[in-house]
Amino acid sequence: MSDGRPAAPVIAIDGPSGSGKGTIAARVAERLGWRLLDSGALYRIVAWAALARGIPLDDPERLAVMTRTLVIEQGAAAVRVDGVDVTAAIREERISVGAAAVATLPEVRQTLRGVQQGMRVAPGLVADGRDMGTEVFRDAELKIFLDASVDERARRRHKQLMEKGSSVSLRDLFASIQARDRSDRNRAVSPLRRAPDAISIDTTQMSVEAVVAEVLKHVETRGLAAGPARSRGGGQEND
Ligand code: DC
C-alpha cells in the first residue's frame, strides 16, 4: 500500500457459474467478519445500467464512461445503483447474457478493477469471481478455485430457479451453463482459469458446510483469522 501499511488480507474464490462460490464466499466472509465482494454482480450492474440507458453492449468507450459514473452500493441484503434497488433485476437471464458480453471488454474490466481493489479494507476481504486470484488480487493471501461437474451445476441452478417459481428445463440450463463456461474460459481478456497457486476444491459431492469448513481450514493454516470464526449465519444461496 502506498501509505506503507500492509494491505488488508484477501481470500480470492474463483470458479465457473454454479460451482458454489457465491454461497461459499458469503458464508466465509460472515464467519470471519470480513467484507464480501461479489465481482460478478458488478458486471451484471454494468449490463443492467447499459440496457436501462440504451447504451449498446459492444460500445466499450461509452460503457467505460458510464461505469465510472455509477454509484454502486453493495449491501448484504440489497444492491443499489444510483439509488435504485437492482437486487432481483440483475439476476435475470437477459442480464446474465449481457454481463458475459460486457465482461469481454478490457475498458470495462479496467474500470471495475479499481472499484474492486478499493474494497480491500481491514480486517479483510473475501472476493468471489473469475479472475480474483489471477488478475485483480494476484497477491491474495489465500486463493481457492471451486469447480463442480456441469451436470451438478445445472441441477443446482435448476433447484434455485424452481424455488423462485421459474420453470426452465434442466436441459436448457445445462446448455446455457456450457455456453457461459465457453465464453468465460475462452475470452481474450482475463479468462476464467485456476491461478497456479490456488487450492482446487471439487464441490460436486460436497455440502456447502463441508466446503466452508475446508476453506476455513486453509484460513487457519495460513494464520489469517484474527479470532475464532463466528457462528453460522443465514445468507442467500448463490452461485
Ligand atoms: O458470477 P456471475 O454469474 O454473477 O458473473 C456474471 C458474469 O460476469 C459472468 O459472465 C462472468 C463475468 N465475470 C467476470 O468476467 N469476472 C469476474 N470477476 C466476475 C464475473
Write a concise keyword list for the protein shown above:
single chain, 239 residues, alpha/beta, five-stranded parallel β-sheet, three-stranded antiparallel β-sheet, 8 strands, 46% helix, binds 2'-deoxycytidine-5'-monophosphate
Task: Describe, in plain words, how this protein is organized in 3D.
It is a single chain. This protein is α/β, with parallel strands linked by helices and 239 residues long. It contains nine helices and eight strands. The chain has helices at 21-32, 39-53, 60-69, 93-102, 106-117, 132-136, 150-163, 170-186, 208-221, and strands at residues 10-14, 35-38, 72-74, 79-81, 84-85, 125-129, 142-147, 199-202. The chain has a five-stranded parallel sheet with strand order 2-6-1-7-8. The protein has a three-stranded antiparallel sheet with strand order 3-4-5, covered by helices on one side. Strand 3 and strand 4 (79-81) form a beta hairpin. Helix 2 (39-53) crosses helix 4 and helix 7 crosses helix 8. The relative contact order is 0.23. Mean pLDDT is 90; it is low at 228-236. The site of 2'-deoxycytidine-5'-monophosphate has 14 residues, from helix 2, helix 4 and helix 8.
Mean pLDDT: 90
Principal-axes geometry comes out as globular
Strand content: 5-15%
Main β-sheet, in a few words?
5 strands, parallel
Order of helices and strands: EHEHHEEEHHEHEHHEH
Cofactors and ligands: 2'-deoxycytidine-5'-monophosphate
The SS-based structural class is alpha/beta
**Any low-confidence stretches, pLDDT <50, length ≥5?**
228-236
Question: Termini, distance in Å?
Answer: 31 Å
Count of DSSP E strands? 8
Q: Compute the CA-based radius of gyration.
A: 17 Å
Helix content: 40-55%
Number of helices: 9
* Strand order within the widest beta sheet: 2-6-1-7-8
